[in-house]
C-alpha cells in the first residue's frame, strides 16, 4: 500500500504568520498544532489554520516541495493560498 504525504501551510489569520510543514497524517498533525501539542513556532505565534495543502506518494518529493515553498518569497506563498483558498478558510474541518 502506498503512503500519502502532505505538504501543508498553516496561517495565524488571513495574510498572517505562515508555517510550512510536511507529514504523513495531515489530520493528526493539524490537530496537534491546533491543540498546542507541538511546542515551538506554531504555538508561539498561534499558527493553527490549515489554509493550503498538497499530496504526494513520494516522501522525497514532499520534502523537496516543502523546502521549495519555504524558499519562496512571501508574495508567492500568499498567491498560492489565494488561488486555491481565496476566503482563507480553515481546511481542517473538511479533512
CATH homologous group name: GIY-YIG endonuclease
* CATH class type: Alpha Beta
Distance between the termini: 21 Å
Percentage of helical residues? 25-40%
Report the mean per-residue pLDDT as an integer: 97
> What is the N-to-C succession of helices and strands?
EEHHEHH
CATH architectural grouping: 3-Layer(aba) Sandwich
What is the C-alpha radius of gyration, as a whole number of Å? 13 Å
Q: What structural category do the secondary elements indicate?
A: alpha+beta
CATH topology: GIY-YIG endonuclease
Short description:
This protein is of the alpha+beta class and about 100 residues long.
Write up what this structure looks like.
The chain has 95 residues and is of the alpha+beta class. It has a single domain (5-94), classed as GIY-YIG endonuclease. Helices cover 39% and strands 22% of the residues. The chain has four helices and three strands. It has helices at residues 26-34, 41-44, 59-71, 74-84, and strands at 5-11, 18-23, 49-56. The longest helix is centred in the last third of the chain and has 13 residues, at 59-71. It is globular, with a radius of gyration of 13 Å. 23% of the residues are buried. The mean pLDDT is 97.
Amino acid at each position: 500500500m502506498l503512503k500519502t504525504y502532505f505538504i501543508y501551510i498553516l496561517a495565524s489569520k488571513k495574510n498572517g504568520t505562515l508555517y510550512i510543514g510536511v507529514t504523513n497524517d495531515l489530520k493528526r498533525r493539524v490537530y496537534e498544532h491546533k491543540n498546542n501539542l507541538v511546542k515551538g513556532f506554531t504555538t508561539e505565534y498561534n499558527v493553527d489554520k490549515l489554509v493550503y495543502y498538497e499530496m504526494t506518494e513520494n516522501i522525497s518529493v514532499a520534502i523537496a516541495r516543502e523546502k521549495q515553498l519555504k524558499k519562496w518569497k512571501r508574495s508567492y506563498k500568499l498567491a498560492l493560498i489565494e488561488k486555491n483558498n481565496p476566503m482563507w478558510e480553515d481546511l481542517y474541518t473538511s479533512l
